Amino acid sequence: MKPNPKSVLVALVLPIALMVAGVSLLGPSEARVLGVPAIFVYVVVLFPTVAGLMALAWNLWDKHESYDEEPAPQAVAR
Description:
By secondary structure, the chain is mainly alpha-helical. It has helices at about 5-25, 40-60; strands at about 30-35, 35. It has one domain (about 5-60). Helices cover about 60% and strands about 5% of the residues. The longest helix has 25 residues, at about 40-60.
């Protein structure tokens, strides 16, 4: 089974881009949310976001794919 490019983009590339962009922008920041550094809040919020993106990609593009492996070839008795 070949992976669907849209699924790979949404479930793999987009979360990586969000993590890199957020950490790059919020890393040097002194901003705080309820006394917690904003970078920590961003990373914690990103976990369920990534799970949601993966679920979205699966539901939109991969749900109806067959994940069965090809049967192994039968051994020939000698």
